[in-house]
Specification:
single chain; 469 residues; alpha+beta; Beta-lactamase
Length: 469
């Protein structure tokens, strides 16, 4: 009997049944992958492809009183290549399609990047998807590279701090590090205003590790920093720094400063010094020259204090501009001899004459009856012995010992600016008081923090104080 027919039929049915089962299993798996687990699979796949990064906020500018930029942020670019996909470049030249060899493209790149082609060409060989050709090129160089339309060249943008006027007001602006962290001056003191808020974004990369175009997803927009407006005039600051630098060279001095304060407002128009730091390259300056001596250094004021002593004598009724004293060129105070700066016979001077000829002895003669406590209180009222309201970082308070600590000699020498120390800004502020009919205004360096609409916030107050009348 022949059983081939029934056996073949059974096998066929078994094969069909198995095929249906397999199709059903594949269908179930397909539904599982594409419908049930599609979202989680896509998410897992995206996580493998996605790269998250912080988008640095653009730092605000520092401007002078006239809107001139003292510090700003510019873009620099790292120029990179992907050697694994380096190939000749197709271009249309004079309407004709042409193929430019890798060697020729390398020569173009080397010219723009100011590199030797023998240095650049080997970097384009290999299987890597990333090699840096040159770091931190400027925007013009980047533009020229982009115009070459080389598909295997890409750039990473970076923020870079630029101080267009170099050392002009560098002592005030301070500087930031290569990582963008504020390190000194206004940059650090007003970092909360300047810094802004960083953003966040993700993008996808292909199997070659290169960013997929149009794949960027912004998670949080970067919020740019605000501008800080100073009261200084950059042109006057420049001129003052030039004069100071010239005088430092002529006199072989260690340094010099100049401060100008607007009498009726207290606004600091210039606060110059020489030498001064160039914040574009602070490493070129010794550490001692990277700060602001006008705020941070104290010195014995010497004869500039005599006008303060005279104002105190007049205001307390111990003298007038016409009060006469007889002043020799020296006098003994306890075991100490105080001299004038030049020899002269005993001279009858008015207070005006004492100031005119800058007599130490004459100053003592018209001020010696003022109680030490009274003179100390007046010096405090003029702003000595404490930092100014500018609150510049590292600002000195100077040295003004309490009158109870003065010995007999110190009681006299403080009248003409010895045995105490002041900062250049403190002394300039004292003279602002004299010029403003005895009304002292807090010195102001920063006019405010400027918001996106141009409005100033954190505006300092002058707080007038009648010191003498």
């Amino acid at each position: 009997m022949n059983h081939a027919g029934p056996v073949s039929a059974r096998r066929l049915r078994l094969l069909v049944t198995l095929s249906v089962i397999l199709v059903f299993v594949f269908l179930i798996r397909l539904i599982d992958f594409q419908i049930v687990r599609a979202e989680s699979i896509n998410a897992e796949s995206y996580e493998k492809r996605a790269v998250a990064r912080t988008v640095p906020a653009v730092r605000g500018d520092i401007l002078d009183a006239n809107g001139n930029i003292l510090a700003t942020t510019v873009y620099r670019y790292d120029i990179n290549a992907a050697p694994a996909i380096v190939r000749p470049v197709e271009r249309k030249i004079d309407g004709i399609d042409q193929v430019v060899s890798v060697e020729s493209v390398a020569a173009e790149l080397a010219r723009i990047l100011e590199m030797d082609v023998s240095e650049l060409l080997p970097k384009l060989i290999g299987t890597s998807h990333y090699v840096n050709l040159k770091k931190r090129v400027d925007a013009e160089t980047h533009r020229q590279i982009v115009e070459l339309e080389i598909p295997w060249i890409f750039a990473d943008p970076h923020h870079d701090r630029l101080y267009p006027n170099g050392a002009v007001a560098g002592n005030l602006t301070g500087f930031v590090g290569t990582d963008g962290v504020a390190l000194a001056g206004i940059e650090r003191q007003f970092n909360a205003c300047l810094a802004g808020v960083d953003g966040k974004e993700t993008f996808e990369k292909g199997v070659d590790g290169i960013k997929i175009p149009s794949s960027t997803v912004v998670l949080q927009e970067a919020k740019p920093g605000r501008n800080v407006i100073l009261t200084i005039d950059a042109d006057l600051q420049y001129q003052a720094q030039q004069v100071l630098a010239s005088e430092v060279r002529r006199l072989n001095a260690d340094w010099a400063t100049a401060v100008v304060i607007e009498v009726e407002t207290g606004r600091i128009i210039l606060a110059a010094e020489a030498p001064s730091v160039d914040p574009n390259d602070p490493g070129k300056s010794p550490e001692s020259e990277r700060g602001a001596r006008v705020f941070q250094f104290a010195f014995e004021p010497g004869s500039t204090m005599k006008a303060i002593t005279a104002a105190t004598a007049i205001d307390t009724g111990y003298g007038t501009v016409n009060t006469r004293v007889r002043a020799p060129d020296s006098m003994r105070v306890f075991d100490h001899v105080i001299n004038d700066s030049y020899s002269h016979p005993p001279t009858n001077w008015t207070m005006t004459g004492v100031l005119r000829f800058s007599s130490n002895v004459g100053t003592i003669k018209f001020a010696e009856k003022i109680p030490a406590k009274t003179r100390y209180e007046y010096m405090e009222a003029f702003g000595f012995g404490k930092p100014t309201a500018v609150a510049f970082e590292g600002e000195t308070r100077g040295v003004l010992n309490h009158y109870s600590e003065w010995d007999g000699v110190t009681n006299y020498t403080t009248m003409f600016g010895q045995a105490l120390s002041v900062s250049p800004v403190q002394m300039a502020s004292a003279y602002q008081t004299l010029a403003n009919e005895g009304v002292r205004l807090n010195p102001i360096l920063v006019a405010g923090c400027q918001d996106a609409d141009g409005n100033l916030t954190a505006i300092p107050k002058s707080n007038p104080t009648q010191v003498v009348s």
